[in-house]
From TrEMBL:
Coiled coil: none
Signal peptide: 1-25
Protein name, UniProt field: DUF1080 domain-containing protein
GO molecular function: hydrolase activity
InterPro entries, A to Z: AL/BT2_dom (IPR010496)
Pfam families: 3keto-disac_hyd
Keywords noted in UniProt: Signal
Domain 3-keto-alpha-glucoside-1,2-lyase/3-keto-2-hydroxy-glucal hydratase, first and last residues per copy: 52-252
Superkingdom to which the source organism belongs: Bacteria
């Protein structure tokens, strides 16, 4: 038999190249799949699990939450396409803010949110749920959430990322519009509170400081002695004048 050496070498190289391409392609596909899985909303990656993060919202239900002061009612809040949202105009449900079942103290909370352009909502921390305080803002600090066209954006003490009514932002960090997701986080340790918006520190207070107590005493909250006085309480999502969307709500204890 006459063997064509060139033909054999050519076939061998083709097989090797095809095998290499196939393996490389499979590796890339596996890496891409892993990346997509890690970025899936309302899930924890291995690094987050190892760091002690837990999900406050599972992307499927309102498990772990209840209507503030109305725990037996059917919440106006619902899950739509992996987001936690509310329709202020819905009927046949219990309207109101949505509170965590648990109270939290020293922690870091991070979440993503988006709002209609004229939307207005907020996230309260350290809320006391008792008969003396039927409304969340009577005790809890509000992380203000506004749509980009809302009139309160012109008020230096009401911008997104502020403690509602408190002071101007430490850093200018406008919210995203056009249906884009914003990234927010709240850190609290022994009464020292920091708010972040899209990676920028926007507010810092120490609720046990004289400066904070003096401000409260002359603020719109002066008639509510329990306002901003506790470093432990429920996390509460505000149902206000518009819809709001949340996802990737994660918390770890500090």
């Amino acid at each position: 038999m006459v063997v064509n050496v060139r033909q054999c070498v050519s076939v061998t190289l083709s097989v090797l190249l095809f095998t290499s391409f196939t393996v490389s392609g499979n590796d890339k596909q596996s890496a891409t799949s892993a990346s997509v899985a890690a970025e899936k909303p309302n899930t924890l990656n291995e690094a987050e699990k190892n760091a002690g993060w837990t999900l406050l919202f599972d992307g499927k239900s309102t498990l772990g939450w209840h209507t503030f002061q109305q725990p037996e009612g059917t919440p106006s809040w619902k899950v739509v396409d992996g987001t936690l949202t509310v329709d202020p105009g819905a009927s046949g449900v219990q309207h109101g803010d949505l509170a965590t079942d648990k109270a939290y103290e020293n922690y870091e909370l991070k979440f993503e949110w988006k709002s209609p352009e004229n939307g207005n909502s907020g996230v309260f921390i350290n809320v006391q749920e008792d008969a003396e305080h039927p409304i969340a803002w009577q005790t809890g600090l509000e992380y203000q959430l506004l749509g980009v066209a809302h009139a309160d954006n012109d008020d230096s003490a009401k911008k997104t990322g502020e403690i509602f009514g408190y002071t101007s932002q430490i850093a200018t960090s406008p919210a995203h519009g056009d249906g884009q997701w914003n990234q927010s986080s709240i850190r609290q340790t022994d009464g020292k509170v920091e708010f972040y918006l899209n990676g920028n520190l926007t507010t810092r207070v120490d609720i046990y400081s004289e400066q904070w107590k003096n401000w409260v005493a002359t603020s719109r909250f002066k008639d509510f002695p329990a306002f901003g006085a506790s470093a432990k309480g429920h996390i509460v999502l505000q149902e206000w004048t518009s819809t709001i969307y949340f996802r990737n709500m994660k918390l770890r204890t500090l």
